[in-house]
Amino acid sequence: MFFERPESGEIAVLVHIDFGRGSETEDPREFEELVLSAGGDPVAFIMASRQAPDSRTFVGSGKVAEIAQTVEEHGAQIVIFNHTLSPSQERNLEREFKCRVLDRTGLILDIFAQRARTHEGKLQVELAQLEHMSTRLVRGWTHLERQKGGIGLRGPGETQLETDRRLLRARIKAILGRLDKVRRQREQGRRSRRRAEVPTVALVGYTNAGKSTLFNRLTASGVFAADQLFATLDPTLRRLELEHAGAVILADTVGFISHLPHRLVEAFKATLEETRSADLLLNVVDAASGERDQHRFHVQEVLDEIGATDVPQIEVYNKIDCLEMGPRLDRDDEGRPVRVWLSASTGEGIDLLLQAIAERVADDMVDENLDLDPGQSRLRAALYQLGAVASEEFGDDGVSHLHVRLPRVEWDRLLASEHHH
């Protein structure tokens, strides 16, 4: 390898073994999506089937040799298994491949760590990472065990391993304490309401439903001024300019994953925390999938559990190119757009989705021009405090002409308080 590939993630070799145990097998396509969303660059996908995992290396010796050769050919930096590996299997494989080995749990944790934005989300993810690590502690220290000490390693008769276990336990305990506090605080104060600024639209849905494709398609389509600030700040947030509805922030969340390892469930929910404060959810469904309805049900269940039931949503039925049907927009009895059929990969129906988002967002926003005379300074101050004033000009007669944009609930509240005074 003489040249680095530009801007690519870590070069990864993917391994998926089919144990033929009926339906419990993971979906290889979903696996590839996961690796991509973790920022990996998959260069090879090795598949095999076995009766049962090998206790030492998980796969048989022939496969080990084949993977090692693939790693060498591609100069891969990491081998990722679509399975749960034991700590010793991970270690043995790293020795064989001479590069990092990651299992499914480690991969998912990495994605959560990149996506967690709220304080609670970060804590939950760190907790899961520590718990995952504590089973793998034997790892880095085996070569030090023999030295029994050495500068900076001499404890009062305590091996490095014991020190680490103790530090980990203390750290886990501290995090549990902080999580507890976060929860109590949340119950006390109503979530400080977000400023009346740019509405957030969050994408939710299964990993393989085409969420990232849709996210990229929306942010790249001509309507939008890509906002450089966000682009560098966070790969999962973009600012979009919608016609007739001003700007929205599009947020891509962590994808739902089938057979999520049990101890990652809390971290997963916490990573989705911020969808509670979104103004609109786009629930992306793979319309061509046989498990479409189970997935929809499962997504809804999780949204209920994290308290996002009341957030308005538009269902996005993706992959209509596989269904041989055209794009369309479904409305409910009140005429509100509730479902859009489209294809994120071909771009068919994207315009309908944009229209639906604009309608649903504008629905909740007031966009008005006001003339306030000097006696209404209280109202003017209140509008400024809400961050609702888009522009202001003063007339000669001391009247100020304001252009305001704010959520309808805030607007109604202001009007009500004006009546009282």
UniProtKB/TrEMBL annotation:
Listed GO CC annotations: cytoplasm
Gene: hflX
Principal subcellular localisation of the protein: cytoplasm
Binding residue positions for Mg(2+): S212, T232
PROSITE patterns the record matches: G_HFLX
Cellular compartment(s): Cytoplasm
SUPFAM superfamilies in alphabetical order: EF-G C-terminal domain-like, P-loop containing nucleoside triphosphate hydrolases
GO-annotated molecular function: GTP binding; GTPase activity; guanosine tetraphosphate binding; metal ion binding; ribosome binding
Function: GTPase that associates with the 50S ribosomal subunit and may have a role during protein synthesis or ribosome biogenesis.
The keyword GTP-binding appears for this protein: yes
PANTHER family hit by this protein: GTP-BINDING PROTEIN 6-RELATED, GTP-BINDING PROTEIN HFLX
Binding residue positions for GTP: 205-212, 230-234, 252-255, 318-321
Protein's name in the database: GTPase HflX
Keyword annotations: Cytoplasm, GTP-binding, Magnesium, Metal-binding, Nucleotide-binding
Gene source species: Chromatocurvus halotolerans
Gene3D superfamilies recorded: 6.10.250.2860, GTPase HflX, N-terminal domain (3.40.50.11060), P-loop containing nucleotide triphosphate hydrolases (3.40.50.300)
Domain Hflx-type G positions: 199-365
Cofactor(s) required for function per UniProt: Mg(2+)
Superkingdom as given in the UniProt entry: Bacteria
HAMAP family: GTPase_HflX (MF_00900)
Homology family: Belongs to the TRAFAC class OBG-HflX-like GTPase superfamily. HflX GTPase family.
Subunit structure: Monomer. Associates with the 50S ribosomal subunit.
